[in-house]
Amino acid sequence: MAALVLGYLSLVMIPILAGLMLPALAKAKEKARRILAEELHRLGWRPGEMEKRLKADPDKVRIARRLRGETTMTLKWIAGQLQMGSWTYLSNNLTKTSPIARTQ
């Protein structure tokens, strides 16, 4: 059993340790940053604007929803970039404002 677990871990960990996953992560971050820049430009926000806005600002929540839908970035990463507090706070805001939540 231990050999089976070690065999599985080596199959999973070797590509990660070899750096095969790093280009994909870099590409995902690049896409997320591009989307973020597009949204900031669309809203006319300057780089320091995130700190001035509320954590649950509707525009921030909309940007977070777009990032979550179009990228593989984690809620933790998105919450950090948008300065929305913890990832759980962001998750709660996304749930509260989802179209599904409004119909129930």
> Spans of 5+ residues with little confidence (pLDDT < 50)?
none
DSSP strand content: under 5%
Average pLDDT metric: 84
> What general form does the structure show?
elongated
Tally of domains: 1
What's the helical proportion of residues? Answer: over 70%
Described by strand count, sense and barrel closure, the largest sheet is: none
Structural class by helix and strand composition: mainly alpha
Task: For the record, give the distance between the C-alpha atoms at the N and C termini, rounded to a whole number.
Answer: 47 Å
Alpha plus pi helix count: 7
Radius of gyration: 18 Å
Give the H and E element order: HHHHHHH
Question: How many distinct beta strands?
Answer: 0
What labels describe this entry?
mainly alpha, 7 helices, elongated, single chain, 104 residues
Detailed description of the structure:
- There is one protein chain.
- The chain is mainly α.
- The chain has one domain.
- The protein contains seven helices and no strands.
- Helix 2 packs antiparallel against helix 4 and helix 4 packs antiparallel against helix 5.
- The radius of gyration is 18 Å and the shape is elongated.
- It starts with a helix and ends with a helix.
- 13% of the residues are buried.
Task: Itemize the secondary structure elements and their pairings.
Layout lengths: L1 H16 L4 H22 L5 H4 L5 H13 L4 H8 L4 H10 L2 H5 L1
